[in-house]
Design brief:
There is one protein chain. It contains 16 helices and eleven strands. By secondary structure, it is α/β, with parallel strands linked by helices. β8 and β9 form a beta hairpin. It is globular. About 5% of the residues have low confidence.
């Protein structure tokens, strides 16, 4: 259960607003940070953020602030609140205490004085919001009119109550901002009825020869490889199940996926690690792909159903990737009562092998314009 830290910026605090613009909105290059931190810490930042600029904020080293700073761990949530409005949400990726880096990043606007924000934290997956803080207060049981001050944290009993009802703070707040309904976790798991047994087919020697000569696994691995490459080009990190990583190495000399799943994702790892391809950032899932070449489409949908039960407010797109001639199979399965109740027909899109090949060909020599949104636009709902 991640901690939630709240940082309050008083309205009209010109210096804080300017610093927010400089180091949270515009962000800071690793080159600017590098000479103020140890080599191993610099390597850690590089492994998280790559060449992307980094959102950075800091606090003064008073006793209360230091106590909270020492409790921070990667994967904790942080909200920046200006006046009565939440301006930004992100995940703590790393932290360091450095007076010299503080002076480099947050110089006094007047050129005078020496305010020291040496308790510095680096924020991953940051997203700007424009949501009234009262919405957050209501979720966590604060009294009406509760006023935030300084640098604080949400008490453990409030965290436990929230996470017993909801899945992911980020998804919940984004849904509230967009005016979408927020779902609570299911009180009990759905009882998944097994798929109907397939019709029995009498095999002839010709059928056996055809099966033995077919290269079914290679189509699955080929799609994993293409989706993994496209993910990297889209600026995402890539995960494939441990059991498939060796196949990708052997078949395509491809090794640019995460070697292990990142701690801090707001889901039990066992429900995510076996999805065929996951595009992700350090602490957030960007997109999930289930490849269904010959296996039952039901099995892939069942994994997506588990994710939706555990995280009903999830925002990332989910795709079933299969040959074009299997689209009707997906349509049939999505009509099953359990999947209809979870509204998977409104959450899971069909992405054909042919479309993946087309996208891969188009971006063979360039990644400009490739994104999760582009993939989503090329996929389709089937019901």
């Amino acid at each position: 259960m991640p901690n939630i830290f709240l940082l309050y910026i008083p309205p009209g605090n010109t210096e804080a607003v300017v610093h927010y613009e400089d180091t949270l909105k515009k962000r800071v290059s690793l080159d600017r940070i590098a000479r103020f931190v140890a080599p191993e810490f610099r390597a850690r930042l590089s492994s998280i953020f790559g060449h992307s600029p980094i959102a950075v904020w800091g606090s003064q080293a008073g006793k209360g602030n230091r106590s909270k700073f020492e409790r921070m761990v990667p994967g904790d949530d942080i909200l920046i609140v200006e006046g009565d409005t939440i301006k930004l949400i992100g995940k703590i990726a790393a932290k360091v205490e450095s007076e010299p880096l503080s002076r480099e990043l947050w110089r006094p606007l007047t050129g005078k004085g020496n305010v020291d924000w040496r308790l510095i934290y680096f924020i991953a997956n940051s997203r700007e919001l424009n949501l009234k803080f009262a919405k957050f207060s209501g979720l966590f049981g604060y009294e009406a009119g509760y006023r935030l001050r300084g640098f604080t944290t949400v008490a453990s009993d409030r965290l436990e109550t929230f996470y017993s009802r909801y899945d992911d703070l980020y998804s919940v707040l984004v849904r509230l901002q967009e005016g979408k309904p927020v779902a609570q976790k299911a009180a009990s798991p759905f009882l998944m009825t097994p798929p109907p047994a397939p019709d029995l087919i009498e095999l002839t020697p010709d059928h056996v020869d055809e099966v033995l000569q077919a290269n079914i696994p290679s189509d699955h691995v080929r799609m994993q490889w293409k989706l993994a490459r496209l993910g990297l080009k889209a600026g995402e990190r890539v995960w494939v199940p441990v059991g498939d990583q060796t196949r990708l190495r052997n078949a395509y000399d491809f090794n640019e996926f995460d070697a292990e799943f990142t701690a801090g994702i707001d889901l039990p790892h066992s429900y995510v690690e076996n999805i065929d391809v996951v595009w992700k950032q350090e602490f957030r899932i960007g997109a999930a792909y289930e490849i269904e070449n010959s296996t039952s489409i039901y099995s892939g949908l069942l994994r997506f159903a588990d994710l939706n039960i555990l995280a009903p407010n999830t925002l990332y797109p989910m795709f079933v990737v299969a040959p074009q001639d299997r689209k009707n199979k997906l349509r049939e399965q999505l009509r099953r009562p359990t999947f209809k109740q979870l509204e998977l027909d409104k959450k899971v899109k069909f992405l054909s092998y042919e479309k993946v090949d087309e996208i891969d060909d188009f971006f063979a020599s360039s990644a400009s314009g490739l994104s999760v949104d582009l993939i989503t636009g090329q996929a389709e709902f089937v019901t």
